[in-house]
């Protein structure tokens, strides 16, 4: 399929498709477009965000059925083939012969790549090994000194997932400051985000390199790019005195303030009204799971703020207002907030 046509057809299902690279578009045209059209015919929308338990169960079923079909004896061999070099060629042949891409994504209305990553997270035996021991932390520091940031190599040596070793090293290497952010730290953070955003734009669109380099003006960047998928461990390294989660939280705070033009959205009567609007909008969605919520649209109920900001405020609201929220489903939490908490907030306002 012609690249422009593929991009145009995918845009119906993925609004941010214009920001996706050409190579990814080609893969999605082959793996996803036909599936997306079939889901549309059935009246099912393509989803993003957190996977539901129903989707997790479907992925598990798909993997188990594929193992039975091919005779591959474990999900780890299927999804982490590089760990089994002696079986690699046979497994690749079976995956091709029995249409692995199609089978693993059956019944799950999401891009194939996200389904594959979710399956790897679910079935990686190295992913759920609890807290790092003191000995493991020392090993991690030693391996990083030997191999740099080759997290794939280090994960194999430590029998931990790539993400786990990268995040843990990020945590233990920093001289973390837990106090208020200084002006210098905040400037370092903003400069770090600006630099990685410029690099991402250059990588995604080579034609904009000259304008980026020659212009002293800030670039207009899609809000989703400013909020999601930033390389936080790299930003942490540039800031130097803060753990990556602190950097992420601070950036969301800065972004929220800039989008809201400095208004204190969650203070005083503004805060009460924002909570009321948030509960009403979530109740109107009739969503059964958080992953079914379009958080970009919900954020409009509060103001021009990032999705992550609204999700964080919702989490705080349910923790502070809904007794036993951990044992309730998403829809039960929303129902409680609407029936019990909303009238109290309206009276207080």
Automatic annotation (TrEMBL):
Residues 124-172, 173-255 form the Myb-like domain. GO terms for biological process: termination of RNA polymerase I transcription. Pfam families: Myb_DNA-bind_6. GO terms for molecular function: chromatin binding. Residues 124-161 form the HTH myb-type domain. One of its GO terms (cellular component) is nucleolus. This is TTF1 factor. The gene is Ttf1.
């Amino acid at each position: 399929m012609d690249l422009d046509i593929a991009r145009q057809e995918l845009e119906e299902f993925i609004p941010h498709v214009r920001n996706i690279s050409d190579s990814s578009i080609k893969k999605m045209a082959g793996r996803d477009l036909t599936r997306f059209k079939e889901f549309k015919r059935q009246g099912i929308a393509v989803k993003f965000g957190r996977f539901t338990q129903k989707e997790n169960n479907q992925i598990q079923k798909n993997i188990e059925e594929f193992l039975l079909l091919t005779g591959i004896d474990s999900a780890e061999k299927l999804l982490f083939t590089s760990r089994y070099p002696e079986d690699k060629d046979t497994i690749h042949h079976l995956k091709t012969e029995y249409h692995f891409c199609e089978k693993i994504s059956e019944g799950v209305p999401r891009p194939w790549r996200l389904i594959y990553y979710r399956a790897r997270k679910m079935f990686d035996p190295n992913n759920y090994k609890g807290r790092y021991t003191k000995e493991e932390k020392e090993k991690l520091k030693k391996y990083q000194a030997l191999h740099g940031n080759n997290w794939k190599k280090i994960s194999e040596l430590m029998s931990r997932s790539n993400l786990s070793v990268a995040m843990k090293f990020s945590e233990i290497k920093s001289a973390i400051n837990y106090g208020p952010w200084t002006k210098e730290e905040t400037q370092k953070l903003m400069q770090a985000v600006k630099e990685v955003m410029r690099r991402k734009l250059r990588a995604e669109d080579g034609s904009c390199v000259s304008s980026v380099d020659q212009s002293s003006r800030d670039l207009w960047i899609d809000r989703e790019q400013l909020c999601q998928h930033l390389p936080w461990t790299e930003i942490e390294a540039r800031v130097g005195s803060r753990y990556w989660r602190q950097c992420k939280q601070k950036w969301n705070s800065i972004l929220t303030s800039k989008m809201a033009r400095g208004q204190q959205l969650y203070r005083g009567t503004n805060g009460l009204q924002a909570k009321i609007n948030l509960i009403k909008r979530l109740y109107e969605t009739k969503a059964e799971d958080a992953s079914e919520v379009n958080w970009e649209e919900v954020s409009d109920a509060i103001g021009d703020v990032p999705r992550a900001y609204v999700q964080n405020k919702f989490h705080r609201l349910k923790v502070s207002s809904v007794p036993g929220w951990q044992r309730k489903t998403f829809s039960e939490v929303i129902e409680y907030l609407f029936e019990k908490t909303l009238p109290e907030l309206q009276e207080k306002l």
